[in-house]
Task: structure prediction
Amino acid sequence: MKVLEDWDGGAIGGRTETGPATIVQSDCIEFLAGLAEGSVDVIVTDPAYSGMNQHMMFGSGRIVGHYQSTENDQWFAEFHDDHQTYRAFLAQCQRALRPGGHFYMMFDSYSLLSLGGLVREYFDVKNLIVWDKVKLGMGHYFRRRHELIVFATRGYRKLSRRDIPDVWRFRRIHPARYPTQKPVELFEAMLSGSAEPGSVVCDPFVGSGSAVVAALKRGCSFVGCDVSETAVTFSRRRVATYLHSGRDPAQPASARIEGESYTWLDST
Result:
């Protein structure tokens, strides 16, 4: 998998802002601790959980083979999701999110069972959303076709619209330009009832930058980080190209399903 492409915009070094988006290289907990209290309207994120890879063996290898090898350019640094670290992370998310702010956290099936309950210690959990990826992926016994998203709030604030379903059908990105790259539409769905133009969106596991592009499409500003230099460079280049040309070099085609209704995803 080729992670970096020679796209328009080139590399953007240091802590330079890319228009309305700020992406920095940092540990997620340190980054969140540096944000002003209550400065974020919506958090949307897909942590690089270590639990499933550490504990679930498939045949002669783990889910992604020799994923911890330094020679494997198809993987990335994982978030050590022990309970102590995860609680520290959630506490900083709670502090950074404004009262009434919305929180969207993606989970794999293992991490939902091992860590999902901890979210209730810091947020009011409202829904469990299913992302239907349409096509089958790998699996242990049953092949996986979905991922899960926990929706929670800090305090009370309704969604801005009432027509959003709890199953979202978007094609997975294949071939992906970055490991575990998610469709921009998936993050747009998270923002569709929770953000409005001018909102501040945060993703402390920015990865490929899909959440950044989704925020910009919605007229929001963005702050986020990733511990990986590769991820930061990739996402900055992607955002720079998108802002300059309106073209998303990491996802040139829509992830929407032909014939499916997405009126709920359209901006009001």
Observations:
- The longest helix spans residues 229-245.
